[in-house]
Amino acid sequence: MAATQEEIVAGLAEIVNEIAGIPTEDVQLDKSFTDDLDVDSLSMVEVVVAAEERFDVKIPDEDVKNLKTVGDATEYILKHQG
Amino acid sequence: MAKIKPSKGAPYARILGVGGYRPTRVVPNEVILETIDSSDEWIRSRSGIETRHWASPEETVAAMSVEASGKAIADAGIDAEQIGAVVVSTVSHFSQTPAVATEIADRLGTDKAAAFDISAGCAGFGYGLTLAKGMIVEGSAEYVLVIGVERLSDLTDLEDRATAFLFGDGAGAVVVGPSKEPAIGPTVWGSEGDKAETIKQTVPWDRFRRGDVGDLPLDSEGNVKFPAITQEGQAVFRWAVFEMAKVAQQALDAAGISPDDLDVFIPHQANVRIIDSMVKTLKLPEHVTVARDIRTTGNTSAASIPLAMERLLATGEAKSGDTALVIGFGAGLVYAATVVTLP
Ligand SMILES: CC(C)(COP(=O)(O)OP(=O)(O)OC[C@H]1O[C@@H](n2cnc3c(N)ncnc32)[C@H](O)[C@@H]1OP(=O)(O)O)[C@@H](O)C(=O)NCCC(=O)NCCS
């Protein structure tokens, strides 16, 4: 069953917490991974792969750079999830 | 049909001694900043690298190998004449033929040991170790010298932001010999040639020689730049972090070793972030010593695992008899992982 927007944000919050140690409640749609959440370009690769597994999506390297905010990632996953 | 006598080998093989050679010149990040737009902070946070060693003209692939091997042979407590084979893994020996292994075998004073080079990038140490184990158990050599050696500074484009800070030079060697107990586990290894493009030499030698420009990088005078190693950093990072953690787990499983049984983890020293991520994914307990030699050595490809092994033993962070998981991975893409007892 496809995940809802709330489920995706909650899932991303857990992933970001695991990888960057940011409290889950700080992970909001308008937050930028690099500027607000301490996720640098390499941590982002880890976030992306964890998200791929969790939401059954493929996020190719060339799309990763367009995912600047939690909202961008959520929208991408909503659209592409299997 | 005539009956052929089979060869007779040892029941098992083990690493008996290790040695390393690090070039005298220590190169801090400040030197790298002379040719790329970067910062010490960025290099440290993205790779863990603070300094690396670059070889002088005298510190050739052969010279560094002889130094490292001499230490490994002494550590193993054998004589050079007892060595039956010398296996050298390198991608930065610039003479196509003969293999550098023969010169090294001669300079060490071996008794006409079989000697050859292999090309398996950053997995070279594991590939060499697997060959050595096979030779010893099969009986074609009693002692095998396995050397990982690189002068990657010769293959680094100092103007390439993605690689200028990564690579270093050095040599690491181990002596592998007979054992009554298993001391080198099953190797989990393989190749993924469909990803060959992610780490490669910018220009093949024949095109470089012809000055065949095409889409190749040019220097300020419009000539094709000397060949260097280039990579798609993010793609390699993704592969290393996720696929290689699985391979490492398979090597543990194949050896029947749980993370709790493990004393030491010596992954190829490519990037401290890859190492940290693997430690997390493998859920290695606190008591496992993790090699982070990358900080002062950079990525020395095939030399990185034996160099890191030597340093851990020298500083007392690891001790003889410890159980260590080693995994190499890199250009090919290729990989090799196994569990070993430290010498
Ligand atoms: C090389 C590596 C550290 C680069 O990190 P990266 O996060 O992939 O770098 P990117 O090229 O995506 O760039 C990320 C950002 O850093 C910047 N950047 C890139 N190189 C930089 C450098 N040398 N100094 C400062 N900033 C740099 C980029 O401009 C980019 O900034 P932006 O987001 O503002 O545009 C990393 O990809 C890596 O280590 N990969 C594994 C490689 C490896 O280990 N190979 C050998 C295996 S044997």
Task: Describe the protein's architecture and organization.
Chain A is built from five helices and no strands. By secondary structure, chain A is mainly α. In chain A, α1 crosses α3 and α1 packs across α5 (70-80). The radius of gyration of chain A is 11 Å and the shape is globular. The N and C termini of chain A lie close together (9 Å). Chain B has 343 residues and is an alpha/beta fold. Chain B has two domains: 12-179, Thiolase/Chalcone synthase (Peroxisomal Thiolase, Chain A, domain 1, 3-Layer(aba) Sandwich); 188-341, Thiolase/Chalcone synthase (Peroxisomal Thiolase, Chain A, domain 1, 3-Layer(aba) Sandwich), CATH 3.40.47. A five-stranded mixed beta sheet of chain B has the order 1-7-6-4-5, with helices on both faces. A five-stranded mixed beta sheet of chain B has the order 8-14-13-11-12, with helices on both faces. In chain B, strands 2-3 form a two-stranded antiparallel ribbon. Chain B is globular and about 65 Å long. In chain B, 51% of the residues are buried. The interface between A and B is small, with 9 and 11 residues. The complex binds coenzyme A. The site of coenzyme A (COA) has 18 residues of chain B, from α2 and α7.
Uncertain runs of chain B: none
Number of strands of chain A: 0
Output the number of helix runs of chain A.
5
How big is the Rg of chain A?
Answer: 11 Å
Summarize the structure.
By secondary structure, chain A is mainly α. Helix content of chain A is 62%, strand content 0%. In chain A, 30% of the residues are buried.
